[in-house]
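Lay summary. Proteins are chains of building blocks that fold into shapes, and those shapes determine what they do. In this project we predict the shape from the chain. Here is one chain we studied, written as its sequence of building blocks.
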Amino acid sequence: MAKKGDREEALFARDADAGAEAPLAERMRPDSLAGFVGQQEVTGPGGLVRRFAESGQVFSLILWGPPGCGKTTLARILARETSSHFIQLSAVGSGVAQIREVVKEAKDFRNYQGKRTILFIDEIHRFNKAQQDGFLPHVESGLLTLIGATTENPSFEVIAPLLSRARVVVLSPLGAEDLKVLMDRALEDTEKGLGNLKAELSPEARELLAQTAGGDARVLLNTLEVAVFLASPDESGARKVTAEHAAAALQKRALVHDKTGEGHYNVISAFHKSLRGSDPDAAAYWMCRMLDAGEDPLYLARRMVRFASEDVGCADPHALVISVAAMDAYRLLGRPEGELALYQAALYLATAPKSNAVYKAMRAVKKMVEETGSPPVPLHLRNAPTRLMAGLGYGKEYRYPHDFRDAYVPEKYFPEETGEKVFYEPVERGYEKLVRRRLEYWRDRKRRGE
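And here is the predicted shape, written in a compact code that computers can read:
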């Protein structure tokens, strides 16, 4: 049976040469900060991760960033450069029993080898509250130095006591230039990379791979490996990788869009703000992103129905009609034909005149009702279907507007206790401009008592 020290050495040996059968992204994983590309805010001079590595001291961290930005690699580098015992768990498939094993192993390494243990938990957001509570005491005591990796906002996914004991490090998608460095390195490396295949990328292929990887180093390198193997060697053994090879390797790459997590809310927020900002092109782009990534089209339809009232309102009364019609059309046609109606609604909403007057009126009314409660309805506004009710004054002195000029007569429609209020203030845009003039005319007549 292998000793724990042997196990540790074997782990880092696998990191170093990963085996020829491993994907290119795994083989090319750097084992030091000198070889790490990107995230200069934390890995460059004065950066938090670099300071930890140089001092030999590391504290608990939550690495928050998109897939393929270097979270796992940074955790392994920190363990190596601080001479720490490294244990990696995936929150998928791990439970309380595995946590107990980790705690026992950490105690053995501390007691017999004097080593700290870094516990790296991939996808820590998948651990539930009870599981996170399970290793909290050991993080608090210093037995475990936790490095958690998550693609989700830790404010929502990591329990507060654990979050307070860890530093959150925000990582970004890798830029195109960083990705190109990784490509060049993989093409030149004859030991772990593709150097022995004599691959040459055309400028178009290089640009296409860098731009379509979405800042994800794993996607980039694994797609690069496929593209190189799609290019047949010529008489000299060289492989000329063209944009066609790159496109074939890419196929239809899954778009980054988490339908339940923060990514979902970020993209829908961008869509909503593009509609509100009257940018039909951006609205269409974000809608396409969501639809192609598998978002529920009816969710988007419901959001547009809401938008039609909240941000367009009476400035264009047809906005609500078109939004509801688009939702019904999608229900009738399904995918892909029904998507056209959703795009039509989105473009209509983006180009419609905007008003949030309806939304503001609703909020103002709700606030007043909360404050004033339920004062009685004035007698003149009550119906009198019975003789008793008529005798009590129900409906007395009510004036029927159609009996007056312009079907309007000044009247008090609020309870005596609240007094007259103004909630709805139409804007000077679209149809509400006409509504505003009409209301000004009626309100002026009411003030004069005509």
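What the prediction tells us: The two ends are 100 Å apart (CA to CA).
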